[in-house]
Write a structure and sequence with these properties.
mainly alpha; Growth Hormone, Chain: A; 2 domains; 0% strand; disordered N terminus; disordered C terminus; transmembrane transporter activity; Sugar_transporter_CS; antibiotic resistance; transmembrane; transport
Length: 512
């Protein structure tokens, strides 16, 4: 269980107005509830957009006459902007002001959603999706850091973060269902639906979000070189992984791109170690809870994104389910996540983030393993429902606890950085595991479309996904064991010293 960091000079707010607004179990005011609801609405839209477009892709391709290779960029464009710029978005919130960054990015998100629903050109649609991804890369860490600097670390923050992160998980799960309903009326509604919600959230955010003094720039200026190399390496990594399916993993282009990613990442690490005001203070990873939470985030969200992709193909292509039937199959998982929203704060307080992350990843791993029983005639009750129940439990336990662990013990002026790091872990994990699952499916099926050939691709992909989730479980288990050992008291031998000796030793110790 992650414990609160003791007050220190580095963790104290620079300005009294930066101090958390809630302490302990104080009753929340209507304004605080309104602030939390606004931030939840923005995260819900971000998560919704990740999953909602998938079901609409066939209709988009038919209407805009897009090839398969072009169509995949409707998804990849969003992931590229979101995953590639999250780190920069988190640090921008710390440096430029969380409220200002959130408001501007939410307005851009609404405008890009409107553009995506109105365009009649594939290139413009992909551009709109990329802009939406960039906007989400700034709203997500800014919103999370507003929560972590408004609610005091402990029960109040755990409750707020549980509601916030479970709302995001619900948006991701329920996006499939909403997309199935909206696509039946027209794919453009999947893009237009978020517009009024984003505008309403923007109005209330302007009125409710706490105003804080603009952060001081500092004498060393901004880390421009770190921003270029760090953001460039993330953008190129997401782009390379996404394009590797068409270019080939062993192609010269893919290999050269990966080498360039490594070179940019190495340059970024060197710059961050030497600059006085780094984009990412590498010392943040000395906090073992933060480091383990980010690794768990990679495995948790990456494995789920890969599973959703495989399950969607299996249910629609092999079993012949409609888009709406497939979306409703995921409803039990989303419903469990949504129903747990108000309870997770108390559960985190009781059991701690480490145990909940462990239980969450274990539940996800078991759900993936059960789905390995898929065949040509699987049923909803026999195959899909048991896995969805386990996935819902896993996400409900794991997603909030990962976000709490990733921001606990971090100074207020680095909450945007911590938020950007964990969100980056989610998105990069999603891109990497999705690319790996796609490559395994392609290699296993060997291009065949028969049920047997499809199963030869789906089963190995599910094995890879289950293995990645199992690695996340092991990482979390090690973290729980480390925390448990730290908390065990050290046994001190009870020697029967003479009273005079004890007094002399006490005098010496007091002088030290």
């Amino acid at each position: 269980m992650t414990t609160a960091r003791e007050p220190s000079a580095t963790s104290a707010p620079a300005n009294p107005s930066d101090a958390p607004s809630v302490h302990g179990d104080d009753k929340w005011s209507p304004r605080l509830w309104g602030t939390l609801i606004v931030l939840c609405a923005a995260l819900f839209l971000d998560a919704l957009d990740v999953s909602m477009v998938g079901v609409a892709l066939p209709s988009i391709g038919d209407d805009l006459h897009l090839s398969t290779s072009t169509l995949q960029w409707v998804v990849s464009g969003y992931v590229l902007g979101y995953g590639g710029l999250l780190l920069l978005g988190g640090r921008a919130a710390d440096l430029l002001g969380r409220r200002e960054v959130f408001l501007i990015a939410l307005a851009v998100f609404a405008a890009a959603s409107l553009l995506g629903g109105l365009v009649d050109n594939g290139g413009l649609l992909i551009a709109a999706r990329f802009i939406k991804g960039v906007a989400a890369a700034f709203t997500a860490p800014a919103g999370l850091s507003i929560i972590t600097t408004t609610f005091a670390e402990g029960p109040a923050r755990n409750r707020a973060l549980s509601i916030y992160t479970v709302t995001g998980a619900s948006g991701f799960s329920l996006g499939l269902v909403l997309s199935g309903l909206l696509t039946s009326a027209g794919w453009r509604f999947t893009f237009l639906m978020p517009v009024p919600v984003a505008l309403i959230a923007l109005v209330f955010a302007f009125r409710l979000l706490p105003r804080q003094p603009r952060p001081e720039r500092g004498t060393g200026g901004y880390d421009i070189a770190g921003a270029i190399t760090g953001t460039g390496s993330l953008l190129l990594l997401v782009f390379t992984v996404t394009e590797a399916q068409s270019a080939g993993w062993a192609s010269a282009r893919t290999i050269l791109s990966l080498l360039l990613v490594i070179a940019l990442a190495a340059a970024f690490l060197v710059i961050e170690q030497r600059t006085a005001h780094p984009l990412v203070r590498l010392g943040i990873f000395r906090n073992g809870g933060v480091a383990r939470a980010n690794l768990t985030a990679l495995a948790l969200f990456g494995s789920y994104a890969g599973f959703q992709f495989v399950a969607t193909l299996y249910l629609q292509r092999l079993l012949g389910w409609s888009a709406l039937e497939m979306a409703l199959a995921f409803l039990p998982a989303g419903a469990l996540v949504a129903l747990s929203a108000t309870k997770m704060g108390a559960i985190v307080d009781r059991f701690g983030t480490g145990r909940l992350m462990l239980g969450g990843v274990l539940s996800l791993t078991l759900g993936y393993a059960l789905f390995l029983r898929l065949d040509e005639h699987s049923s909803f009750l026999g195959l899909v429902l048991p896995s969805m129940v386990l996935l819902g439990i896993g996400f409900a336990l794991g997603f909030p606890s990962v976000n709490i662990a990733a921001t606990n013990g971090v100074a207020d002026d680095e909450q945007g950085l911590a938020s950007g790091l964990v969100n980056t872990a989610f998105q990069v994990g999603s891109a990497l595991v999705l690319a790996a699952a796609t490559a395994v499916i392609t290699a296993g099926s060997n291009g065949g479309q028969s049920p047997a050939a499809q199963l030869d691709g789906y089963r190995p992909a599910l094995l890879v996904i289950t293995g990645i989730s199992l690695v996340g479980f092991l990482v979390t288990a090690v973290g729980v064991a480390v925390e448990r050992n730290r908390k065990q008291p050290v046994a001190v031998p009870d020697y029967d010293y003479p009273a005079a000796a004890v007094g002399a030793n006490s005098e010496v110790l007091s002088q030290r």
